[in-house]
Amino acid sequence: MKKILQDLSQTFGPSGKEEEVLNKVRGYFKRAGLEVKTDKLGDIWGIRRGKSNKILMIEAHMDEIALMVSGFEGRGFLRFTNIGGFDHKIFPGLEVMVHGKKKLHGIITSIPPHLQTGDSKVAWKKDELLVDTGLADEIIRAQVCIGDYISLPKNFIELKNSRVAGTSFDNRIGVTLLCDIAQRLKKQPEFTVVFASTFGEEVGLRGGIVSSYNISPDLGICFDGSFGDFPGQKDTSTKLGGGPIISIGPAYHPILVEVLKATAKKSKIKIQEEIEPRPGGTHAGMIQLSKTGVGVAGISVPLRSMHTCV
Amino acid sequence: MLLKELSNLPGPSGYEKVIRDYLKKTLKPIADEIYSDILGNLICLKRSSKSTKHKILISSHMDEVGFLISDISKDGLVRVRPLGGIDPRVVLSKRIYFPEHKIFGVIGNIPIHLQKDSDLERVPDWESIHVDIGAENEKDAKKYLKVGDYGVFDTQFKEIDGTVMGKAFDDRIGCYIITELLKNRYDFDLYAVFSTQEESGLRGIRTAVDSVKPELGFNLECTTAGDLPREKDISPSTELGKGPAITIMDRTSISSPKLLRYLTETAGKNKIPYQFKRSQTGGTDAGYINTYGSGVCCVTVSVPARYIHSPVSIAKKSDIAYTIKLIDSALKNLTKNKILPGGNNNEKNN
After folding, report:
1. Directed axis angle between helix B169-181 and helix B17-27, to 10°?
2. Within 13 Å, how many C-alpha atoms sit on residue A244's CB side?
3. Topology, domain B66-153
4. I want to staple A264 with a disulfide (CB 3.0 to 4.6 A). Which of A41, A145, A269, B171 is the partner?
5. Interchain proximity A134–B111, CB inside 8 Å
6. ipTM score assigned to the predicted complex
7. What is the dotted CATH code of the domain comprising B2-64+167-348?
8. Which residue has the higher pLDDT, A29 or B342?
């Protein structure tokens, strides 16, 4: 499973340009023996036909947050904007890759202490930061267009206690679970299972809507990443190593939540709970509203430092 | 390429052993004498090709900016303090490597979803910067690391066309240039000093210069390039691709006017592009070479790099090559041009 996560998290698939990840997922679904379908917008489904026509949809979004070239500043520097939600305090000193005609290494600018004039206690503003490729302006303008994507560093580091650090674990961790469960589901199930790896969640919940419309599931389970404990973070008590997080709130069907909890108890699996009082921030809330309505459960893996590069 | 190894190896201020050992091994075949002192400076002698015994110093510092572990908290997260000048604004979401126990860590951050508006512009202080090594709790973390262990940015060297990117360019580029120069033999005794603890207050050089007692010094550095495109940004200081940057004056030293003139004339004769460093900020080992004993004429020549003291800097190979050429040409003609003390123009010396 770690191998799948490494493979998927080191593949670049920002919202709107998920093809590379989609192709990887297709490979995993095919190797698991699933029937594979894609839709017009960029979702991919792996289907395991069951004994009945009832459908369980297991969903995880495959897109990740990224940056995009928004202009040229001269001397080989690029202006950029963000695709998805970022804390711009992580940018200065970051190594990025500009996906132009060729892939170009870049560094996000910072000012060394020796040359600083302003207040060093104030974060640099987002529009003060640029991507420096170190290349001449002519080369940059020939290789890069406005609208080209910029990826964050794709390192994958093994830490202690089998913990790993990398980028885009939100939500390649969910896609990894899809691929892993697909491989385990060898016997024909009682009902049909559709594994849906969806696009465009980080920019306003797109793929979940069209996928659930097309699949018409009877039940849905959504995999995502959620907030693991970190100093200074209030209202999050879910811990790394504390087991899967079951979401509770208006988006999640109470009976399904109870079934999951009972199953965990029976199988002696540690679980954690997280409340989501305002539904609609994830694909789960969209799948719930599909057609005449779908009972949905949400299961998340606790991640630290979501929406950063580590 | 030697610069790649020098950039990737870890050696922050006070913990330069890995760099020293690497340089010692590399230079053994070409140096006539090689030794280190109590402060860990590596001193390397290349004897004169003639019987004249003038002593000329070339120096660069081995240390880079890095971290020391200051505290391990109950939840197993590690806190660090900077060794040398690191702006906390460049560390969030970066990776740190603790070489003594080969441990990797990442600097975490509260996700944007959970930050309050007041957090968005707030720069974290070192107490609230947490390095995650994957430990479950304090006891677990202490199996792998302890307070006082050192760390460096985890950055891999890259070379793309004529551009190099990596950590520790300040001052492994200087070290690299000296290793190139030591391949030559000049008509004086050339003492190369690879100093320690420059980033924590120009410390190693003080004892090294005392054991060498040079007559003249060239300090090789990597300095701030400030050539960002926006008008209002910062003083250009130096610019990439414009050749070696010669320091006239900085926070700790005033370069010898005689040496400045000599270097610019040498550059002119050999068609080597050069620039002057246009900011006076920052101090270098030259400050202590300059004021050693009864005084030593000294000049600092630097390769410009953007974003020094951050996880990754960027420099041009052409600037490195021109710096090597400039210093080599200057050293070759030093005796002929009566630049050495004891020459006819000694009285006009500064």
Report:
1. 20
2. 21
3. Elongation Factor Tu (Ef-tu); domain 3 (2.40.30)
4. A269
5. no
6. 0.88
7. 3.40.630.10
8. A29
> Domain spanning A2-64+168-303: which superfamily?
Zn peptidases (3.40.630.10)
Q: Is the CB of A147 inside 8 Å of chain B's CB atoms?
A: no
Instruction: Please tell me the predicted confidence (pLDDT) of residue B350.
Output: 45
Q: What band does B343 get if pLDDT is binned at 50, 70 and 90?
A: very low
Active site (catalytic) residues of B: 198
Q: Could you tell me if A116 lies within 8 Å of chain B, comparing CB atoms?
A: yes
Residue appearing with tokens 């003390």? B341
Express each pLDDT in B282-316 by its tens digit.
Answer: 889 999 999 999 899 999 999 999 999 999 999 99
Degrees to nearest 5, angle at CA B272 with B268 and B276: 80
Let me know if A201 is a catalytic residue. yes
To which residue do tokens 């050192």 refer? B150
| Cβ within 8 Å of A, B 164-203 | 165
Residue in A64, A201, A202, A276 annotated catalytic: A201
Per-10-residue mean pLDDT of chain A, 310 residues long, equals: 96 94 97 95 94 95 96 92 93 96 95 85 89 92 96 94 94 96 93 95 87 94 93 83 94 94 96 87 88 93 93
The Cα-based distances of A54 to A192, A218, A276 in angstroms read: 6, 6, 28
CATH number (2.40.30.40, 3.90.700.10, 2.60.40.1120, 3.40.50.2300) of A66-151 reads 2.40.30.40
Residue of B nearest to A107 (CA): B312
* B281/A contact by beta carbon, under 8 A: yes
Please list, in sequence order, all residues whose beta carbon lies within 8 angstroms of the beta carbon of residue B210, skipping any fewer than 6 positions away.
B292
CATH 3.40.630.10 domain range(s) in chain A: 2-64+168-303
